[in-house]
Amino acid sequence: MPNISIVVPVYNEEKIVSSVLDKLLATIKNIDTHTFEVIVVNDHSKDKTLEILQRYDNIKLISNPYNLGYGASLKRGIREAKGGWIFITDADGTYPVEKLPEFLPYMKDYDMVIGSRTTEKSEIPLMRRPAKKFLNKFASWLVSFDIPDLNSGMRMFKRDMCLEFWNLYPQRFSFTSTITMAFIKNNYLVKYFPIDYHERVGQSSIRPLDFFNFLALVFRIAFYFQPLKFLTPIISVVFAIGLGKSIFDLWYQNFIGNFTIFLLTLSIILIFLAVIADLLFKQRK
After folding, report:
1. What is the DSSP secondary-structure string of 12-66?
2. Phi, psi of 101 (to 5 degrees)
3. Which of 39, 92, 230, 279 is the most exposed place for a label (fewest CB within 10 A)?
4. CA distance 243 to 168
5. Phi, psi torsion values for 52, nearest 5 degrees
6. What pLDDT, in 10s, does the model give residues 203-255?
7. Which residues make Cβ contacts (< 8 Å) with residue 181, sequence separation at least 6?
8. Nearest 5°: CA angle at 210, between 205 and 213?
9. What is the distance of C-alpha 268 from the center of its chain?
């Protein structure tokens, strides 16, 4: 029985997948302190990826009948995993899979170990850096924890803790963002250490529009795990505008307008919503 299951989602990676798998298999072959299984989830690739994967007899191959997405592929692999720990990485050559042994010493002290793409050699595309920095800062503020890399795809975590938040994980991107915030907000121990990030081989399936999908996810997770902190600034702004407008109305018009009443009522509703959501979260813990 393996104690570490490696899950690798793959989609249209015919140019690099064999190189990544060969490097990964060679790495774990030289580790005698743990036992491994390698689960590769082919997300209905349209190129020769499946044909290449079928040549390996030392991996467990799962093939999606149609394209399900990154998150769904990871979930299929994790569901089939036998190990108590899950290690995930991508098959596009961006992550240094040979660094896997550096994750292992942290297993005894932490619940999740994340490779942070923050070294000088990390080749994160220039167009993604502002969005990535903003999301990291925003997520850090929400959970009061320094998050240098919210959605790194190379990480290791305890499977049983991962399953606690199963219904939260999205089908496509942002699986990693969700699990990061879920672990941290529930006071599970998370360790970051720097890794290199290489230029991708092949074409990325991430589009600029996905930034807004990431942002929507962060808002959703924020409301789930930290509703009071998330809504307090919004409530304060709405109430301040409503209060200022009411003073203006009374001073210049001698009556309070409908829009002012709407703003003040909305702020009260949001206060009750935030308190109720916060109480519900505490009951879920």
Report:
1. S-TTTHHHHHHHHHHHHHT--SS-EEEEEEE---SSSHHHHHTT-SSSEEEE-SS
2. -60, -25
3. 279
4. 38
5. -70, -45
6. 555 555 666 776 676 677 777 777 887 788 888 998 899 888 888 888 877 87
7. 139, 142, 143, 150, 218, 221, 222, 225
8. 135
9. 33
